[in-house]
Every structure is written in structure tokens, then in C-alpha cells.
Specification:
It is built from 9 helices and 10 strands. The protein is of the alpha/beta class. It has a domain of 169 residues: Rossmann fold (3-Layer(aba) Sandwich). The radius of gyration is 18 Å and the shape is globular.
Length: 242
């Protein structure tokens, strides 16, 4: 469970990026975090992970407050797929990236190997296992970054634009994988078709505040609501708006 209670944040004094943000994501829930550029989606993700300090309000992950003293415990519980895969893949090969976190968290070599092979098979990317990260395409690197997080088997997964740079085939594989994951999932994305296909609930951010929070089918079908916050209907719903 992830809870944000009256969270606010500013990069510069007097210019709040987030204001009075409160929501709870229940165990196993898949929630889409949407909003126009600059709405604060990536900032929310970084605050939950403790990459930015929560200076106003409180964030809890499984009832543990996110703070300096709890970061190690929090990050064992959370997996984060970064928007820029180059910032996530830092080992020479896909395989070495996938085993790094599990081994460092005390998972046995045998269990780690099982996880790696299972994830690669699930995502249909066994051929990338021993490829060098600097020799694979942007789309392949995005798939590898997702595979790295899945191999950790965290309790909750945060994803920032997980389908960015993917071709239609790999986008569909990632969407299928997201739907089937048992973990709590928070997905920030401009890909509203993907959000509609994978998430049961949507939180709409606008100007650093929650403009709407409810069933994905209701919010993503509301043309007037989306356009009021500088977004368009998902392509699959164009012509079927409320």
C-alpha cells in the first residue's frame, strides 16, 4: 500500500510543484497517473521513492514513512522503471543488470537465475540476455529496464512512461505483462490507451493538484474533463466521448 497525505513540494521557494496531494493505492491495485507536461507526475514518483525529500506532508509505503532513515527498507519494497532507460541500465550486459539487485538484496544465485530466465521468457526477450547494453536499440533497452525491475520481484512497482520508445509489438507485450503483475502498480504515462488497457483507476494531476481520481473507464471517457486539463481522449475512444 502507498499513501500520500497532504504532500507538497517545491524545487524553488514560492513555486510549488505539488500542493496538498492525498491518495492511497491499495495492495495489488494498478493505478494510472496522468496529466499534461509539468503536472508533477515524475515528481510524485521521485518523492515516493525518496529520491526527493518530502518536505510537506507524509508518504507511507506499507505503513513505513519515507525518509532518510527508512530509504533502504523502502527501496526493497519498490521497483522503479525510469523514463530514461540509459539512467537505469549501468552494467555491461542485460544479464548483469538483471542479477545485480536480487543478489545485493540477498537472493541466492540459483533463485536469481530462475527469476532472470522466467522474466526473459515472459517478455519474449531471451535473445537479449547476454547482449551488451550499449549495442541494443532504445526499444530493446526499455524492455531490458522493465525486465531488470521484474527480476527484483518488489512488492510495488512504479513505472514512468513504460511504453515510450517501444514498437507496437513490444508495447503490447509490456501491456500484457503489466496487467498480469500481482504487485501494486503506479504508472505515469501520456499513453492513455495503455493506461485504459492496464489500469482500473486513474489519478489526474493538473497544476500540482489532483483534478480527478476515479475509475479509468469514467475519467478517460470524459472528453470535457481531459481537454480542460490539456489532454485528449485515448485514440481508441475518439468519437465515443461523454
Amino acid at each position: 500500500m502507498i499513501t500520500c497525505s497532504k504532500v507538497g513540494f517545491s524545487y524553488e521557494p514560492g513555486h510549488p510543484v505539488l500542493q496538498d496531494l492525498s491518495f492511497t493505492i491499495g495492495e495489488g491495485e494498478c493505478v494510472g497517473l496522468i496529466g499534461a507536461n509539468g503536472a508533477g507526475k515524475s515528481t510524485v514518483m521521485r518523492l515516493i521513492l525518496g529520491l526527493l525529500p518530502c518536505t510537506q506532508g507524509e508518504i507511507l509505503v506499507d505503513a513505513v514513512p519515507v525518509g532518510k532513515d527508512t530509504l533502504k527498507e523502502i527501496r526493497k519494497k519498490l521497483g522503479f522503471v525510469l523514463q530514461n532507460s540509459d539512467n537505469q541500465m549501468f552494467m555491461p550486459t542485460v544479464y548483469e543488470d538483471m542479477i545485480f539487485a536480487p543478489l545485493n538484496y540477498g537472493v541466492s544465485k540459483e533463485e536469481t537465475e530462475k527469476r532472470v530466465d522466467a522474466v526473459l521468457e515472459k517478455l519474449g526477450m531471451q535473445e537479449l540476455k547476454h547482449r551488451h547494453n550499449h549495442k541494443i536499440s532504445g526499444g530493446e533497452k526499455r524492455m531490458a529496464a522493465i525486465a531488470t525491475i521484474l527480476a527484483m520481484q518488489p512488492e510495488s512497482i512504479l513505472m514512468d512512461e513504460p511504453t515510450a520508445a517501444l514498437d507496437p509489438y513490444n508495447r503490447r507485450i509490456v501491456m500484457n505483462a503489466i496487467r498480469e503483475l500481482p504487485q501494486t502498480r503506479l504508472i505515469a504515462s501520456h499513453d492513455l490507451d495503455m493506461i485504459l488497457d492496464t489500469c482500473s483507476r486513474v489519478i489526474l494531476l493538473s497544476g500540482g493538484k489532483i483534478a480527478a481520481d476515479g475509475p479509468a473507464q469514467e475519467i478517460l471517457r470524459n472528453k470535457a474533463l481531459l481537454e480542460a486539463h490539456r489532454m485528449e481522449l485515448p485514440f481508441c475512444l475518439a468519437g465515443h466521448s461523454s
